[in-house]
Specification:
single chain; 37% helix; Aldolase_TIM; NMO
Length: 341
């Protein structure tokens, strides 16, 4: 694939975060560790380190490990609705103590105003992922630097039920000057180009990064993403232990397809960074990482509908080089169609 001379411009999202590619990697719990985050950032996109349920001391270690391996901007992702207010505050404080000055902070879901204020007060841009027009409005009112509009096509836990582009159009109509990105159905440079053509300033992607070499996803998880079609994903509420009341899109398996809910017995174990082996019950929200053992096939393999455009397990550098080429080709083709219209 030969790249035409149409560079990917960083745009407002890239300029706000110091990126050369207006693409964020989702901060997937258990999957987005220092290696993935750093490699994405080295390639010019926005790598994001998952903090999920990490204790504050581990947050500091993870941030420091990431900062050692990249001089490029990267982010940390907090999920207050899972961690809880006190832990989310402690995680943020620990992260801010270790983050380099060019880093940014992302939140899954609308955080309490004080978390946004603290992040901004420390000099870090803030990114808030939402799934409805109303929560986008509130995020912008609270001063979010960038709002990510998650569509229902996305993998993982879902914040709304609208597809990404209709949600983008609704928010953009009310906020023409806001810096907006979309999440859901972005796995190629052509997808990114299409989102930008529709009015986005960039995108956030998860599924395609989960399938990379640097991801901490279990090898079976990666292979299943590559093999899957969009129809192999399903929105369910089955994996609710540890994260209740939030629908999620996963790869279908025997548990999602069964009408019966089985007893929540332990089906796997996950080894923590400090060497502890924790049991994983059936229907746990825990994603299968490289540290998982047991019936990995029964665990929650979060996956978006874009999986059908993920064709290989490959290094991040190769993936993002191809993103740039695909973006350039898509823009060139669109210009050609316009010229001949």
């Amino acid at each position: 694939m030969t790249a035409p001379s149409v560079p990917v411009l960083p745009g407002r999202l890239g300029r706000a975060l110091g990126l050369t590619l207006p693409l964020l990697q989702a901060g997937m719990g258990g999957i987005a560790g220092p290696r993935l985050c750093a490699e994405v950032s080295r390639a010019g996109a926005g790598g994001v380190l998952a903090l999920y349920r990490e204790p504050p001391a581990q947050v500091s270690r993870l941030v420091t490990a990431t900062a050692r391996t990249t001089t490029r901007p990267f982010g940390v992702n907090l999920i207050p609705e899972v961690a809880g207010p006190a832990t989310a505050r402690a995680q943020l404080d620990a992260a801010l103590d270790s983050l380099p000055g060019h880093a940014f902070v992302t939140f899954y879901g609308l955080p309490d105003p004080d978390l946004l204020t603290t992040s901004a007060g420390a000099g870090h841009p803030t990114v808030v992922q939402v799934g409805t027009e109303a929560t986008a409005e509130r995020a912008l009112e609270r001063g979010a630097t960038i709002v990510v509009l998650q569509g229902s096509e996305a993998g993982g836990h879902l914040l709304g039920d609208l597809p990404a582009l209709p949600l983008l159009r609704a928010v953009r109509k009310r906020h023409p000057d806001a810096v907006l990105a979309v999440a859901g159905a972005v796995a190629t440079g052509a997808d990114l180009a299409h989102a930008i053509a529709e009015g986005a300033d960039g995108a956030m992607a998860g599924t395609v990064f989960a399938a990379t070499h640097e991801s901490e996803a279990h090898p079976l998880f990666r292979r299943r993403i590559v093999a899957a079609a969009a129809t192999d994903t399903v929105v369910t509420t089955r994996y609710d232990i540890g994260w209740p009341h939030r629908p999620h899109r996963v790869l279908r398996n025997a548990l999602t397809d069964s009408e019966q809910r089985l007893p929540a017995r332990f089906v796997a174990t996950v080894t923590t960074a400090d060497g502890r082996r924790l049991p994983v019950p059936r229907y746990s929200a825990t994603a299968p990482s490289v540290r998982a053992e047991g019936r990995v096939e029964d665990m929650a393999m979060y996956c978006g509908r874009s999986c059908e455009r993920v064709t290989a397990v490959e290094p991040v550098a190769a993936l993002l080089a191809r993103f740039r080429t695909e973006y350039a080709l898509a823009v060139r083709d669109a210009r050609g169609m316009t010229a001949h219209a």
